[in-house]
Amino acid sequence: MKQHMTRMPRGSHCKFSFVRRAAAWTPSLHQQATTTTHHVRSVHESRKSQQPTRSRWLSTAQAETSAPSFTARLGSELAQMESEGTYKRERVITSPMQPAVSVQGSDAPVLNFCANNYLGLSNHPRLVAAAKETLDSHGLGLSSVRFICGTQDIHKQLEAAISSFSHTEDTILYPSCFDANAGLFEVILGPEDAVLSDSNNHASIIDGIRLCKAKRVRYAHCDMAELESALRASASARTRLIATDGVFSMDGDVAPLHRIVELARRYDAQVFVDDCHATGFFGPTGRGTPEHFNLMHEVDIVNSTLGKALGGATGGYTTGRKEVISLLRQRARPYLFSNSIAPAVVGASLEVFRMLLEGSLPVRQLQDKAKAFRASLTQAGFTVTGAENHPIVPVMLGDARLATEFADELLLMGIYVIGFSYPVVPKGQARIRTQLSAAHSDEDIARAVDAFVKVGKKMGVV
């Protein structure tokens, strides 16, 4: 079968991304399917019948005979998304987040392989109990921002726990890590400064950088030669900040942090890492990308989240030097103008860090499961990307509609995944991003691999 190879930029630390296209696949294949191995087909068909169609969107746009109105223009954009297979629909879950979830209309659970529930804590009994206890002791909410009357003792305790776990001086909490990224750069960087950002950084980093007045330089993904050139070219800047994801969420590859830190020290730059897809489960004790590279005291600023591995509820944070954190408390707009994190979430998050410090969480087991799952898919003929021991395992398909149809077919077999396409990933690099959880059993993983192989053969991918 023909393979199309998309090569990363010259000098990239990260692996090449191979995109396999199925010559035998057509958009009508899903409709032609007449058999199923799972009870959720009725759910799937019901969901399809309720989906807006291209003609529905176009009927709005075509009703305009003069210059397109506001709603007609939006309808035209929606119709184009439909035709390209990039329109995103939300499946409705009616159970707690766990390895097996109930999808609305289905009569039995399906295995979830697309959640950020890396440590399996989203419905952990200890966290649920801690949340309930804190709800009773500290109430539902605070109806305030932190600097007015929105800081409770538990907020300060959680910030201290994160600092202790991260080996940093201080921490500031936000409603989300998107807010943490949105609030950071405009506070610490000005017109005299420069920020050097990896081209594959998360959207929240990109948006946060847009808000600051520093000179903005984007270097090719994981390309250390290009980063060094940018550092040389920005030598006159007052402060230079290198900004990178620790683990890139769509590809599952790891930033070459050891080389980034080396360049930063050589050129007197600062290092910022967004570690949302590493905190709690990557590195020997789950302390993320800095620990993975034995650089716990070498990264200047780390942003991360409570909404993925650490319970999956909500909340983000910045941790680092006390001067950085203190200035953020004074000037970061998402901190100053957003309500405090709800007490129940704070109480549950405190319990997560107790568990991490106890060493009772299955960090190593998760990494082993990721290796086994990746190896099985590769052996079956799929093209996967990412780091060997990271639980993000993207299965590259190339075509957007193929990715969507592939995910729908997997749901019929009891495997819940989602197809990702433009603009979330570059055009022509559509994929199914699978994510392992420590709560997945070996039988769950084997069942997922078997389903991938069957659908892959049916659709001409393997």
TrEMBL record:
- Aminotransferase class I/classII large domain residues are 109-452
CDD domains under this entry? KBL_like
One GO CC term, this protein: mitochondrion
Keyword Transferase assigned to the entry: answer is yes
Q: Where is the composition biased (Polar residues)?
A: 49-66
The reply to whether tRNA-binding figures as a keyword in the UniProt entry is no
What cofactor does this protein call for?
A: pyridoxal 5'-phosphate
Cite the InterPro entries for this sequence: 2am3keto_CoA_ligase, Aminotransferase_I/II_large, AON_synthase_class-II, PyrdxlP-dep_Trfase, PyrdxlP-dep_Trfase_major, PyrdxlP-dep_Trfase_small
* Biological process per Gene Ontology, one example term: L-threonine catabolic process
Region (Disordered) residue ranges read: 29-66
MF (Gene Ontology): glycine C-acetyltransferase activity; pyridoxal phosphate binding
The alphabetized UniProt keywords are: Acyltransferase, Pyridoxal phosphate, Transferase
Q: Which PANTHER family match?
A: 2-AMINO-3-KETOBUTYRATE COENZYME A LIGASE, MITOCHONDRIAL (PTHR13693:SF102), CLASS II AMINOTRANSFERASE/8-AMINO-7-OXONONANOATE SYNTHASE (PTHR13693)
Q: Which family does it belong to?
A: Belongs to the class-II pyridoxal-phosphate-dependent aminotransferase family.
Q: What is this protein called?
A: Aminotransferase class I/classII large domain-containing protein
Q: Which organism is this protein's natural source?
A: Chrysotila carterae
